[in-house]
């Protein structure tokens, strides 16, 4: 069903030259590709001159929108001063040092050192290597398994994709690899049983985690990694008390909690970190995306002093800390990270997000009444609307019908770019969006959903 009407700005050159990620590439010559040419504020414009509200902040990342002059000036100044240098072999650059200090200042838990990567995937991949390195240093060579969750998303490198709990990231890729375990997804709407309260659901997921740990042996498990809000799994917000219950089980078995803040960091949930919003107490943290407001690639791993000291001890034994990326700590990216945090602070982006949150919640709750929508979910300025064939029974559409992707395409035709995650339509606008712009975004969202509902009814998709 996807892309029944080809896009009018079909770009043959683009189709022939690029291997597009997360795209049904077997259909690309039919559906075409939209080529973006410029951006301004919350809008992006394609090569045909059409404007769209970028309702996903690109890929959950362009928190300051497009064309911010302060960011452009910071990039230009850094390019003139030092366009590249590395941080291998005890070298460094002022932007890398300054950004590490800023991250320590705003971290939700005590942090001693920051390791820079080029992406969130590399950050989460590094988290696993560091957990292994730490346990080798501590004389625990068998404590190496990592727990993730069903529907989690942690990236696309071999290890990060293994941590990811989505079949599409495993099928055809020979994943997941060994040492990765998956526990329950904390989605009460989908996985709660009839008559079960949210509190009972939380207790059941905590017991399931405990059973997994005891079955595998706590002396074989190094860490659990979790997103405060599960993004690419469908914007899943855990029930109240979930992380407190999970944390108690992990602490009891000496298993560290890694917070994947790649999507939820830097104000997205109404606090600096999703960990603060969801009452997580992680030992280490992964960050990326809004770290630079997406103006350059950068990821980071943040670790406390006690864990860092285990690295020091093992480096003394082995002769070196042999891990790193050519562009980790790139001076351009770090300068933009410094400037982004400065802008978040001086423009009170957190306060702006909090001001918008009631309207965001109101408009999403209104969408829950739409005949296509089974549930809406939200936290701060990130949300999702799950489309269902039957609201009463929560019956999903057959994935082959492509209802979510078709709804996303129709929304795009109305001038708003959102993202279909299966049959959940995700929304994650730039944090600079105004109330009027946010209302316009939801108006376009609703128009697209109305058209999708008409299409579903015409095709008889609820009965097939």
From TrEMBL:
UniProt cross-references to CDD domains, sorted A to Z: OAT_like
Assigned keywords, A-Z: Aminotransferase, Pyridoxal phosphate, Transferase
Gene Ontology annotations of biological process type: biotin biosynthetic process; gamma-aminobutyric acid metabolic process
InterPro entries noted in UniProt: Aminotrans_3, PyrdxlP-dep_Trfase, PyrdxlP-dep_Trfase_major, PyrdxlP-dep_Trfase_small
GO MF assignments: adenosylmethionine-8-amino-7-oxononanoate transaminase activity; pyridoxal phosphate binding
Pfam family, one: Aminotran_3
UniProt key word Transferase: yes
Family membership noted in the UniProt record: Belongs to the class-III pyridoxal-phosphate-dependent aminotransferase family.
NCBIfam families linked: PRK06105.1
Name by which UniProt lists this protein: Aminotransferase class III-fold pyridoxal phosphate-dependent enzyme
